[in-house]
Design goal:
900 residues; 21 helices; 25% helix
């Protein structure tokens, strides 16, 4: 017996953590590629027993490779605690135990998947897929089912016509069901000559119809591929065995086992054969030789010819000839009817212990969820009508200026808008306004429109309300063409409780995708909670993330409502800031491990991906590397800022606003401020009975109103809130669609309470014809230009040197820019002193009180240029004495440095 051994685990390091991509275990067969091959010649039964060698002699010679420890690979499960000087024994022990659990989970995954890319690519085989052998394959996971079939308009909704075969041909031990939909042969056509005849349906669909027969292709392969003599033993299979037999036993050797005499051992036979053939001429057979160093064990070093080895390694299998045997799409259409035509409606049928069920497949990519019975649509358009990508994704910028959108409410008319309307109306506006990314929510299929997409039912499908999957591809492609990144609001923290169209009770059991009992239901929202500790559920969720990137070229994700999944109380508990609240019995460790895996896999497969965490509890280590005990997100959302602003606007008198609280809330945790995403208001303020800041502060504009003071107050407050939120420290900023020009109306999706009215489920773009709204948009554009020209958001944390609760003034320095905010409702200052670190000349580059921004223009043009004076203010040697109107803000830029 001869064994060739090749170890091949491929190890990827994720922030220093091992991320092994290795093949399945296949018995004891291993294969090693080395320059020196080892041949193991087993002893013959008749051979004289030799003394047993020592254990060390039995081991083959191999290089001693020292396995690296976790610390040597840069892995420290409590690294971020040490980095930030956090000492908490309970939480540190929790991180160490979680790290061990993640390693065990990875080992469990790799026992079932060849690597983590395979783990996150389930969509390649699950769901409905066209097979090259004139058929469609369907696969889904339903471990609680006893029978599975497909029903649809293509088979008259028959539960018996297209079913899974019995035994392991139809389902495996893990509960995955496999159904084959054979294409139907047209009348008068003959079956293919080859049983495994393949067709080009999409890729190279115009090739394969040349009329060349398979026999001609095979003959050409034999003539072109094989070198003279190489096909000798293929054409004469028994020649080698016969010659070997004759060499060992002679021309008149034994014909039966009884006539077989005792054979010499392998070593003796090899030496005799070598002596006999020492003068033979060279041949094209593999040149090997065995080096025997006189050792008493049966392992020998075999040395090959380097030239021959490189020749064999360079030789490629004749796959090109095999692919040439494929026929084209025209030949397929001529011979077959599709087993399931494009656009067919279908569902999956299960027979379960509780009775028969019909469900929308979990991996369906196009679903109609509304109506009496939801169904999936088979999406397989002809190649000439499939969407073809035109643009490449833009590079990830250093700072993110995100425009948050909802497709359905993007139009002016009271109806559900489409992907095409979004492309025509919103994308050009976003580009012109100066944003560099859009974030879409409500795109993933959901049954109830009023949920704004946050009760998703089909995680692999875009919402059919807005258009087809190809229409959404066009949205992403056009956005990329304008230089805009496309981020998706992903909801993996819970799912809709719908049974027919969703995943709840998918296979009749209560524990398929979700937990059983109370843990499987959200305490307040009525949604279902995923079972993150199940490998098959992880397979579904991780593949879903990779699906959106691979299929639709999504550039990143915002993970919605992480607190719902990270805690068994769904985040509805009082947090005091004690570290033990993040590691007690209410923390779902399985959910944390899923988030770690999601970030690791996404960042390895797609290095430019962006992941954003929305967590109201600000879990420690959200944006720390996974190798240092973190969860691996790129950004986290500061949810406290918008709540603070809303509270100030509605409940606190203008002269009682606390400047210290404003600064501390906007900066958040100083250690994570460089990973923060800030917004003054997002869609949450306008949905579910809320109001936008513009609606609260000034409402619909009426120039004839007697309360013009209230109107200008609202405009002034809105501008300074947006400017300080935009510039105070976070590298990412978000604005909801319409708020850039002060949209004065809230959003109400059609519900029974409003008689399913669409009157407020839109955006009033015609408001831009109004001078005030147009001026607010101009101000928002100037903010975006400020970052584009001066790189404000990417300059690191600001130096906040002036916070005065008495005068209600805040000032900070960020690069060459000086920001001054006066929140006081009545007090204006002619010469307000603010310290600066550089002596020189400063010029106003942005002023909220300018007339073109609907301000009062109290600062004159001759006051825009200011020179420092030598006076110690705010711990600086120099200061500026600037005019500072009430409820206004100015941005000064250092244009000339004076050396004193």
């Amino acid at each position: 017996m001869t064994t060739f051994i090749q170890p091949s685990p491929l190890t990827l390091l994720l922030d220093g953590s091992p991320f092994n991509f290795q093949p399945h275990n296949r018995g004891n067969q291993r294969f090693i590629i080395r320059r020196r091959w080892r041949c193991l010649a087993s002893e013959q039964p008749h051979r004289q027993q030799r003394p047993q060698p020592s254990k060390s002699a039995q081991q083959p010679k191999r290089r001693n490779k020292k396995s690296l420890t976790d610390s040597e690979r840069g892995i420290d499960p409590v690294g971020f605690l040490t980095k930030h000087g956090i000492t908490n024994k309970a939480f540190a022990q929790f991180l160490r135990e979680r790290y061990k659990s993640v390693k065990d989970l990875k080992d469990e995954i790799l026992r079932r998947h060849i690597n983590f890319k395979d783990m996150a690519s389930g969509y390649e085989i699950l769901g409905m897929h066209r097979n090259v052998q004139h058929r469609v394959d369907f696969m889904d996971w339903a471990p609680g089912a006893r029978y599975c079939s497909l029903v649809g308009d293509f088979n008259g909704w028959s539960p018996t016509e297209n079913c899974a075969r019995e035994g392991h041909f139809g389902h495996d031990d893990y509960g995955y069901w496999f159904i084959v939909l054979e294409d139907k042969l047209k009348e008068g056509e003959k079956p293919d000559e080859l049983y495994f005849q393949q067709y080009n349906y999409v890729d190279d669909y115009d090739k394969g119809d040349s009329g060349v027969t398979i026999e001609e292709i095979i003959k050409r392969m034999e003539d072109e591929y094989w070198e003279p003599g190489e096909d000798r033993f293929i054409n004469s299979r028994y020649e080698k065995a016969a010659k070997l037999y004759e060499q060992i036993f002679g021309p008149n050797g034994p014909q039966t086992e009884d006539e077989l005499e005792e054979l010499a051992d392998a070593e003796t036979r090899y030496k005799a054969w070598k002596e006999q053939h020492k003068d033979d001429p060279p041949s094209n057979l593999p040149p090997f030789d065995v080096i025997d160093n006189g050792k008493e064990y049966d392992i020998f070093n075999i040395v090959d010819d380097p030239v021959w080895r490189e020749k064999i390694r360079a030789k490629k299998p004749p796959l090109a000839y095999w692919l040439e045997t494929r026929k084209g799409r025209k030949a397929w259409l001529k011979k077959y009817f599709p087993g399931i035509p494009h656009g067919s409606k279908y569902r999956v049928y299960f027979n379960t212990p509780g009775g028969p069920l019909e469900r929308v497949p979990a991996w369906a990519t196009y679903v109609i969820p509304e109506g009496m019975q939801a169904f999936a649509i088979h999406w397989e358009p002809p190649p000439d009508s499939m969407y073809k990508w035109k643009n490449i994704p833009p590079k990830v910028p250093k700072s993110l200026r995100i425009y948050e959108c909802h497709i359905g409410i993007c139009g002016s008319e009271p109806k559900i808008s489409s992907f095409n309307e979004f492309i025509a109306k919103v994308l050009p506006h976003v580009k012109e306004s100066g944003y560099n990314a859009i974030q879409l929510f409500g795109v993933i299929e959901h049954k109830d429109y009023f949920t704004a997409g946050y009760r998703a039912t089909n995680l692999y499908a875009t919402s059919s309300r807005y258009g087809t999957p190809d229409d959404f591809k066009r949205v992403v492609d056009e956005a990329h063409g304008l230089g805009l990144l496309v981020l998706l609001d992903i909801v993996h923290s819970y799912a809709a409780a719908d049974e027919m169209v969703g995943l709840s009770l998918f296979d009749g059991s209560n524990d398929c995708y979700f937990h059983t009992g109370k843990r499987g239901h959200h305490k307040y929202w009525g949604t279902r909670m995923f079972k993150y500790g199940d490998v098959d559920v992880l397979h579904y969720l991780l593949s879903n993330l990779n699906w959106w990137v691979e299929e639709y070229q999504i550039d990143g994700f915002q993970f919605h409502s992480l607190s719902s999944m990270m805690y068994t109380h769904n985040g509805f508990a009082t947090f005091t800031g004690d570290m033990e609240e993040y590691c007690n019995q209410y923390v779902d460790k399985d959910a944390l491990m899923y988030l770690i895996l999601a970030n690791e896999i996404l960042h390895v497969l797609h290095p430019n991906i962006i992941t954003i965490a929305e967590d109201s509890t600000v879990y420690p280590g959200l944006c720390e590397p996974t190798s240092q005990g973190g969860l691996g997100f790129d950004y986290y959302v500061n949810l406290s800022a918008s709540e603070m602003w809303l509270n100030f606007i509605e409940n606190v008198p203008d002269d009682k606003w606390n400047m210290t609280k404003i600064v501390s809330t906007l900066i958040g945790h100083r250690t994570n401020a460089d990973k923060m995403l800030l917004y003054a208001e997002n869609h949450n303020q306008s949905i579910s009975g809320g109001q936008s800041f513009a609606e609260i502060l000034f409402g619909e504009i009426n120039q004839s109103s007697d309360s013009m003071d209230s109107f200008y107050r609202g405009l002034s407050i809105l501008k300074i809130i947006k400017l300080i939120t935009f510039t105070i420290g976070a590298p990412a900023y978000l604005n909801f669609m319409g708020n850039e020009f002060g949209h004065p109306k809230r959003i109400e999706f059609p519900t029974p309470s409003n008689n399913f009215s669409f009157l407020l489920a839109n955006r009033c773009w015609d408001l831009l014809e109004n001078e005030v709204h147009c001026n607010l948009l101009s101000f928002d554009k100037e903010m975006m230009k400020l970052d584009e020209n001066e790189s404000v958001l990417s300059r690191g944390l600001p130096n906040i040197h002036h916070v005065n609760n008495a005068t209600l003034v805040i000032s900070y320095i960020r690069g060459p820019l000086l920001f001054i905010f006066n929140f006081h409702p009545t007090n204006s200052y002619e010469r307000y002193s603010v310290g600066v670190d550089e002596a020189g000349e400063y010029k106003v580059v942005l002023n909220t009180d300018e007339v073109k921004f609907s301000g009062q223009g109290l600062i004159k043009n001759n006051q825009y240029l200011q020179r420092t004076i030598s006076k110690r203010v705010d711990s600086f040697r120099n200061c500026l004495e600037v005019p500072l109107p009430s409820r206004s803000a100015q941005v000064y830029k250092l244009i000339r440095i004076l050396r004193i």
